[in-house]
Specification:
By secondary structure, the chain is an alpha/beta fold. The chain folds into two domains: 127 residues, translation initiation factor eif-2b, domain 1 (Four Helix Bundle (Hemerythrin (Met), subunit A), Up-down Bundle); 220 residues, Translation initiation factor eif-2b, domain 2 (Rossmann fold), CATH 3.40.50.10470. The chain is built from twelve helices and 18 strands. Helix 2 runs antiparallel to helix 3. The longest helix has 40 residues. The mean pLDDT is 98. The protein binds 5-S-methyl-1-O-phosphono-5-thio-D-ribulose.
Length: 363
């Protein structure tokens, strides 16, 4: 996507071979681009959320393997890199998907051939992600178009949670891709952006994306969505996912479940934008089987922002010493999901629906 006229991806390889990322910890206040040069830095970038969002975590891990292969292409190094990167964040399945995919490609090769093959496969994974998200946008656009037509061309109001935007992927985003496509198609669309405590990915990243792209939007506090739905101000919800099970349960940023409950109570369609690498075919019951990341208490007791004087920093908002819990994701059961917007089309959130859409993957 474009920032001030320049097209950026969230991760890319420079002509000199270095892997560059946008360090998202500083957005929206500063656009900082950094190079990741060794495995330790890749692990830190994923764990400490310089990059985040399920597809981007996967793409970053793929390049992390490639950089490590250039340093040490041995079998031991490949296996250890899988471990080191895999333990950085437990919930987004794209991480394991990308590490397994890199291992599948590299393991049969002679060590001397691994680095070049790894960089090539990492670049392909990035390009595939862009294409998948583009397709999700095309398929999701039809949902938005139908709502616009039903409203006689009136404004379509979309609620989204967290950042499932281009910053969470390599480009386009998942939940935002139908929105960007709708804007391009000339549909009058307005986006309600959940701030998404504790890390405020909505306030910091999605709002920034919408502003940059000239998309009409309002930032709302997380607790406002139900109220807006009750008053007919939301036509549909579109969110992303970090892991979707074979039966269509959706694990996404904490608070997604509450939005889905409010959507069902108010008859608001609740869609999930789902790239196929985000399906975990090995699990069925998301609540019972998906590991939920618990992050630092400080993310709850503090908020980050721009201080007077322009410095980006954190302020304590609770009494010093108050304990906090910080589960980073929750699971929305399939029964609350209207449809899964995939690169192949919109699937019902069910075992049958996903199996029909991806027959070659379903067990
Ligand atoms: C297209 S990204 C889908 C999800 O990864 C996104 O909604 C989300 O929850 C991101 O969480 P984060 O903790 O910022 O990595």
């Amino acid at each position: 996507m474009k920032i001030d006229g320049t097209h950026y991806r969230s991760i890319w390889r420079e002509a000199d071979g270095t892997v560059q990322i946008i360090d998202q910890r500083w957005l929206p206040h500063e656009l900082r681009i950094v190079a990741l040069t060794n495995r330790k830095e890749f692990a830190a970038a994923i764990r400490d959320m310089w990059v985040r969002g399920a597809p981007l975590i996967g793409a970053t891990a793929a390049y992390g393997v490639a950089v490590q292969m250039a340093a040490d292409p041995s079998d031991a190094s490949l296996a250890e890199t899988w471990q080191v990167l895999h333990e950085t964040r437990p919930t987004a399945i794209n991480l394991r998907w990308a590490l397994d995919e890199m291992t599948r490609v590299l393991k049969p090769l002679a060590p001397a051939d691994r680095a070049a093959a790894a960089f090539q496969r990492a670049a392909e994974i990035c390009d595939e992600d862009v294409e998948i998200n583009h397709r999700i946008g095309v398929n999701g656009l039809e949902i938005i178009r139908k709502i616009a037509e039903a409203k006689g061309g009136g404004r379509v109001n979309v609620l989204t949670h967290c950042n499932a935007g281009w910053l969470a992927t390599v480009d386009w985003g998942t939940a935002t891709s139908p929105i960007y496509h709708a804007v391009e198609a000339g549909i009058d669309i307005h986006v309600f952006v959940d701030e998404t405590r504790p890390r405020n990915q909505g306030a910091q990243l999605t709002a920034w994306e919408m502003l940059n792209h000239g998309v009409s939007h309002d930032l709302i506090v997380d607790n406002a969505g139900g109220h807006l739905m009750q008053h007919g101000e939301i036509d549909l919800c579109i969110v992303g996912t970090d892991r979707t099970t074979a039966q269509g349960d959706v694990c996404n940023k904490i608070g997604t479940y509450l939005k889905a409950l409010a959507a069902q109570d108010n008859g608001v369609p609740f869609y999930v934008a789902l790239p196929s690498p985000t399906i975990d075919w090995t699990v069925r019951d998301g609540v019972a089987e998906i590991p939920i990341e618990e992050r630092a208490q400080a993310e709850v007791t503090h908020v980050q922002g721009k201080m007077p004087g322009g410095v980006v920093g954190q302020v304590l908002i609770s009494p010093e010493g108050t304990p906090a819990r910080n589960p980073a994701f929750d699971v929305t059961p399939a029964r609350l999901v209207t449809g899964l917007i995939t690169e192949r089309g919109v699937a019902p959130a069910s075992t049958k629906g996903l199996a029909a859409m991806f027959p070659e993957r379903a067990g």
